[in-house]
Design brief:
heterodimer; A: mainly alpha; 2 strands; 76% helix; B: mainly alpha; 19 helices
Chain lengths: 603, 476
């Protein structure tokens, strides 16, 4: 009986999503909220249970096999929690908007696919749900408006391409392991094994939004409806991507600290932190700035898991859930600002702190969390990652701490610009239905920080099982030097901000000296022209190729359409002239022909 | 009994010309209709062997020997159909009582000549009957006493004369080389391989004569004028069957089962065929008169048959026979369409008669069937015969000719679609108003011929199994 519940996690939201499309439009939001709460309750009920479920599906060893264990139960709990909050938030945010028609259906169907992907105990089943998420992702972006189509296509192509890599990885893994059952696979990292590992990791970190698969996220921030940003890139894509990354490194392959692939992962993580945060620093749009941070923070998680040390892995997973909490919260404050002020352009915003105190409060807590301020949750997960990174190499630690400095700087700039400063206009506070999810998220951030023992011991440490036995990762960090460095860095960020505001004139220009720095300004210019975006470069290349092929095609067309036709007509003109109509000419022809035949015969 | 095919038309001709008042054009018409239909039905109903097993009582009085084989059988059927169509068309296009009567008489002469051509078994009688047919057609062409018809007739006459000279000279050489003119003796002479130079010379001359009769490039000068200037009914007769029997049938008969050729002759015939295909197809593009366009198309299609005969493998000969039959049917159909247009609008100039699709539904649809069949579009009859020819060419390693034959189909389709669009499909303000409807006789012919084209196309696998495969065995 209880096995049916885990199937219910997939079937219920899926059918509810389809059903919501035929419901009257006014009911859809409430329906989605009810269904996602039901889903949340089921997830709570199933948490900490171990279940398997399987029935034959496609043959060739591809069974529809699901498995609920501690890790997947935790992810499903988190995902359903965010699904509930976002549908609650969207209730008011999307009211009267055209995109509300389909949004609730997509959110419910997405929940179903996420549950399916997380529960899957068969690589093909996992891939099935994983790829199906592309559909809802596309649909959610494309309802954003007229300009969203291009972005949706970009997202689809980037995600589709990396998912193709993952598909290849699944095939290779299945070939090497002779089974597709995730719980049975344990492969060494030899030559082919490494290839399979890289292909699978490509899919995982692309879903999480790591460099270089990130470029659609800032575009989507401008085009897609805000609840999508808070739900997909901020929350569930991180949950899914990092979950699968952790499964790959922990279960499917035995990655250890000696492996070069571990270093590769750490390098990717470090690069993601630095590149994305540098871009975030110069953004002048609330949502776009947040979206770059959504990329940057992935770097910490990849770095943490890449260290292959228990502290790093626990820090990475803890950072994943923390990031989902505060980034979701930040996006929701952005939505509140957008809803009330009608814009997210930093140049037009200012002094909102007085008129929207609760939103400001939520922003303060979540921004402090992402910057790693004690005692909020981001501090603890980052300290764990710093600890592990320092053990693997100083350079990784430096990258992480530099990223922290820049994160703090950019959020100081954001908060200063939006909530402090001159009061340009009086706005009302956001509606209660939008405030509730924000407040819940902000308080969760505090709880996960102050009482960090609760999530680490209950949710995260059991994932590692025997590997983390005997350690205690909760509480204040063991290495107190790290804490001091962090505090110094944060103070430096404060100091830097005040000096920069004074020197550059205005909070919004707080990062201008970095923007205009000698080498960086060139790089920034390239980045703004999208020269550094692999997708846009690829599209340009394809356009050039298409032009060349078009020329070739025109040539062929000319050959058929003009040359042959003109030649045909030219010949027929000549023949027409010859056919003058005098019988004597015909007689001569015949005689010449006969002469030719006879000379042929008698030769 | 075979001789009845020759004697009955001949006797009917004599009876019609007895000095009785009641023997008018009307009686002559219906008697001829009965005769032609009977010939077609008899061929359809009776098997070949039933015919050849009758005691040849009457035949022994003749100075020439007759034979009947499956090839001749198909020819007799084709002749009957086309002659019947020509007669029906003539009924509505030739209005004068006297001319109509003369037309029927001459048609009977032509029928006698063609039937005999198909049935005789020696080369001299063959020549005589070819000439009888030709003479009847000369007069038929000149039956319309206008300047252009006379000019066309004259061109045909002059070139035919050259053909006769070639063929007669060639026959003289055959007498020198073989001593006898029956097919079997000539065949034996070839097998014995004596006097081979003389025989080759004779074949060369004979070929030149036949090429003129077939109207292949570069011996084709008379064809466009003769076909297009003649009276519509005569065009059907001439294009549909006369040049086919007097030229192509003879070529087919002699070069597939009588003469034994060396390889270079095959190449020569194929070369002439390919030149005809391409040259005439290109020439057809420039024509603004529908009948002239059809004439060039006819030359081009004859090129296919000649090409297949030149290839000479059993499959190619089979393809040639099929294309012969199909071409006779669909080219007659297209000429009947032209006759309908001429009857209704008094012109065959494509710049005048445009946008007629709604006025002439039957003609429009049947002409589409005819042209698609000519271009070899499946599943119409023309597709199968062209397919067999091209397969035979490829099987015989004649890839160049095969590809040319294949690609020339595109040209055929191009100029025919041009014609179809111009006359029927286009919508214009200046579409001419016709005098009255298309006569029933012409409509009947159009539908009959289109039905045969579609029927043969659709039922081809059945026909191939039940009727045609026996040809292959008997040809060799």
């Amino acid at each position: 009986m209880i096995e049916a519940f885990i199937l219910l996690l997939i079937i219920l939201p899926l059918f509810a999503g389809v059903l919501s499309l035929i419901l009257p439009r006014l009911w859809r939001g409430a329906f989605a909220v009810i269904l996602s709460s039901v889903n949340f309750l089921i997830a709570v009920y199933l948490f900490k249970k171990e279940l398997t479920f399987s029935f034959p599906w496609a043959g060739f060893g591809i069974d529809f096999s699901l498995r609920l264990n501690h890790f997947s139960g935790f992810i499903i709990l988190a995902a359903s929690f965010f699904g509930l909050l976002i549908s609650l938030y969207a209730l008011n945010f999307l009211k009267g908007k055209d995109s509300a028609k389909q949004f609730y259906a997509y959110i419910l169907i997405s929940i179903s696919f996420v549950n399916g992907a997380v529960l899957a105990n068969n690589l093909v089943v996992l891939l099935f749900f994983w790829e199906a998420l592309l559909l809802t992702q596309y649909g959610m972006i494309v309802i954003g408006g007229r300009l969203a189509f291009r972005t949706a296509t970009k997202a689809l192509i980037i995600s589709g391409a990396s998912d193709l890599c993952m598909m290849a990885g699944v095939i290779l893994t299945g070939y090497l392991a002779k089974t597709l059952l995730i719980s049975d696979i344990s492969l060494p990292l030899d030559l082919l094994g490494s290839l399979a590992f890289i292909l699978l990791v490509t899919g995982a970190i692309s879903k999480a939004g790591s460099v270089p698969f990130h470029t659609w996220i800032p575009d989507a921030a401008e085009a897609a409806p805000l609840p999508f940003m808070a739900f997909f890139p901020a929350a569930i894509e991180k949950l899914l991507g990092i979950y699968f990354l952790a499964r790959i490194t922990l279960d499917l392959f035995k990655l250890n600290t000696n492996s070069i692939l571990s270093s590769v992962l750490m390098i990717i993580g470090a690069l993601t932190i630095i590149i994305a945060v540098m871009m975030a620093l110069i953004q002048k749009d609330y949502k776009k700035l947040l979206s770059y941070h959504a990329i940057s923070q992935v770097g910490y998680m990849v770095l943490g898991i890449g260290t292959c040390l228990p502290a790093g892995i626990i820090g990475g997973i803890f950072h994943m859930i923390n990031h989902a909490l505060y980034k979701c919260g930040l996006f929701l404050t952005g939505g509140a600002v957008e809803k009330q002020a009608g814009t997210t352009d930093l140049a037009k915003l200012g002094g909102l702190g007085l008129s929207m105190p609760i939103t400001f409060f939520c922003f303060l807590i979540t921004a402090a969390s992402i910057s790693g301020v004690w005692p909020f949750n981001g501090f603890f997960s980052k300290e764990l990652i710093y600890d592990a990174a320092l053990e693997r190499g100083k350079i990784f630690y430096l990258a992480a701490i530099l990223g922290s400095f820049l994160t703090a700087a950019s959020f100081l700039k954001l908060g200063h610009t939006v909530f402090l400063g001159k009061v340009s206009q009086k706005y009302k506070e956001a509606p209660v239905l939008m405030l509730i999810p924000m407040v819940i998220l902000a308080f969760t951030c505090i709880i996960f920080g102050v009482f960090n023992r609760l999530p680490i011991n209950n949710f995260i440490q059991p994932i590692l099982g025997i590997r983390a036995a005997g350690h205690n990762f909760s509480g204040m960090p063991a290495n107190f030097m790290l804490v001091i460095v962090t505090v110094i860095v944060l103070l430096a960020a404060f100091l830097h901000h005040f000096i920069a505001v004074r020197m550059n004139g205005g909070a919004i220009r707080a990062a201008e000296h970095i923007h205009q720095a000698p080498v960086l300004s060139t790089i920034y210019r390239w980045a703004e022209k999208k020269y550094l975006d692999p997708y846009e470069v690829g599209i340009k290349l394809i356009n050039k190729l298409a032009k060349i092929f078009w020329r070739i095609d025109r040539g062929i067309d000319w050959l058929y359409g003009s040359l042959i036709v003109n030649l045909t007509f030219a010949f027929s003109r000549v023949i027409h002239k010859i056919q003058a109509g005098y019988y004597i000419i015909y007689v001569i022809w015949s005689l010449v022909g006969a002469f030719a035949v006879m000379s042929f015969v008698l030769r | 009994m075979v001789v009845l095919f020759i004697l009955i038309p001949f006797v009917l001709l004599l009876v019609l010309n007895l000095p009785f008042k009641f023997l008018n054009a009307r009686i002559a018409f219906w008697l001829s209709v009965v005769l032609f239909s009977t010939q077609a039905l008899f061929v359809l109903i009776n098997s070949l062997f039933a015919w050849s097993n009758y005691p040849a009582v009457l035949g022994q009085f003749l100075i020439f020997k007759l034979w009947l084989d499956p090839l001749a059988f198909i020819m007799l059927f084709t002749i009957a159909i086309v002659v019947l169509v020509s007669l029906l068309v003539a009924r509505s296009t030739i209005t004068t009582e006297k001319r109509s009567f003369n037309f029927i008489n001459l048609l009977l002469v032509a029928l006698t000549g063609m039937n005999a051509t198909v049935l005789v078994a020696d080369i001299f009688s063959l020549y005589v009957f070819v000439e009888i047919t030709a003479v009847a057609v000369f007069v038929l062409m000149a039956i319309e006493k206008n300047k252009f018809a006379i000019e066309g007739t004259f061109k045909y006459l002059v070139l035919s004369m050259f053909a006769s000279v070639f063929i007669l000279t060639s026959i003289a050489f055959f007498i020198l080389a073989c001593g006898d003119l029956s097919f079997s003796e000539i065949h034996n002479a070839f097998l014995a391989n004596s006097n081979i130079i003389l025989l080759n010379f004779a074949i060369g001359l004979f070929l030149c004569g036949l090429f003129i009769k077939c109207g292949v490039v570069p011996f084709h000068g008379w064809v466009p004028d003769a076909y297009s200037e003649a009276q519509s009914a005569v065009s059907v007769l001439l294009a549909g069957i006369v040049t086919k029997i007097t030229g192509i049938y003879v070529l087919m008969r002699l070069f597939s089962s009588v003469f034994v050729l060396k390889g270079s002759f095959h190449n020569l015939i194929m070369l002439i065929g390919v030149i005809s295909i391409v040259f005439a197809a290109l020439a057809a593009f420039r024509q603004d008169n529908i009948k002239r366009m059809l004439s060039y198309s006819s030359i081009s299609q004859v090129g296919y048959i000649v090409l297949a005969i030149g290839c000479g493998t059993p499959l190619a000969i089979l393809g040639a026979i099929l294309h012969f039959f199909n071409h006779a049917i669909f080219k007659s159909l297209l000429f009947v369409n032209a006759a309908a247009l001429e009857k209704k609008f008094g012109s065959t100039d494509m710049s005048i008669i445009t946008g007629l699709g709604s006025q002439l539904p039957v003609t429009s649809v049947t002409s589409l069937v005819g042209l698609l069949s000519t271009a070899g579009i499946p599943p119409l009859s023309g597709f199968w015969s062209k397919l067999i020819i091209i397969i035979a060419l490829f099987n015989a390693q004649q890839f160049t000719y095969g590809w040319i034959a294949l690609l020339a189909s595109v040209l055929t389709l191009a100029y025919f679609l041009f014609m179809e669009r111009n006359i029927f499909l286009i919508k214009t303000e200046t579409a001419p108003e016709g005098s009255d409807g298309v006569p029933f006789g012409i409509k009947f012919c159009e539908i009959l011929l289109a039905a045969i084209t579609i029927g043969v196309g659709l039922g081809f696998p059945f026909i191939l199994n039940s009727q045609i495969l026996q040809l292959k065995g008997l040809l060799y």
